[in-house]
Amino acid sequence: MRQIALTEGPHVSTSVTYTAVLDVKRSTAEHLAGLLRGHRIAAGTRKRRRALGCFKQAVLVLRWFLGGTRLAQLARDNGVSVSTAYRCLHEGLTVLAAGAPDPATALDRAKAAGLTHLNLDDTVIRTDRVAAPGPGGADLWWSGKHQHHDGNVQVIATPDGWPIWVTPVRPGREHDTTGARHHGLIDALNRIAAELDMPTLVDLGYENAGDGFRHPHKKPAGGELTEAQQTYNKVIRGIPGVCERANSLLKTTFKALRRVSLDPSRITKIAAAALVLLQLEYDRTT
């Protein structure tokens, strides 16, 4: 239930109460509530010591994810302080992110499914938190390419654009290949390609990453691509375009991923939690 204050004059105000429907499967909310209940039991939390029950807390977390609802609004709607709402949110992020697959598990599932190839692409998650000093005094989270503060998350997806793993966040100023190497993706995906003939399709941002990667040919300086290279580029650019569906699924489904007002380092848990929620909603892993 929500309340809206309506002013009818200088001294008169009334309240209108209405019911809001959350566009999510009830089973997803119940699953999250179960995770929160297990977390409380493991922590030895006594009954009736929390401001919100597990199901109400799950709804708070899902409202933040799906609608990007501000924490102040969520606090008012639930009759709790803003600091309590933040604690409820971070606890929900923690229990959800814990269920995300690690890269080895995600790649094992891809092997078992017999996929012909994988897609790898990055997505930028904007953040409006204050700047932080980075190497050489440069702004750690400022992306010169996008001209705003953001974090970079790389997404591994199936041939039809279903996300199966998201990396921890890296500063938006980092190059794609640098981030992939930091996460161990370059070696892992080259190994998968060599062992199973399962290459990874990427854009030119991953040029020279290894034989396991397929990307368009780059036009040589002062020269032209051959007809065969031009044909190859048309094909290779069309297939990984499906990978954009993975990023779109995450950002379209979860408004919270479009702009994060929390500490940018929290994007790691937010993205992992979003992947788990997406799998719950669609009942699919690969």
UniProtKB/TrEMBL annotation:
Q: Which UniProt keywords apply?
A: Metal-binding
Give cofactor(s), names only: a divalent metal cation
**InterPro entries for the chain:** HARBI1_dom
Record-annotated DDE Tnp4 domain positions: 121-278
**Out of the domains of life, which is the source?**
Bacteria
Pfam families annotated for this entry?
Answer: DDE_Tnp_4 (PF13359)
Q: What is this protein called?
A: IS5-like element IS470 family transposase
Species assigned in the record: Streptomyces longisporus
Lineage, uppermost ranks = Bacteria, Bacillati, Actinomycetota, Actinomycetes, Kitasatosporales
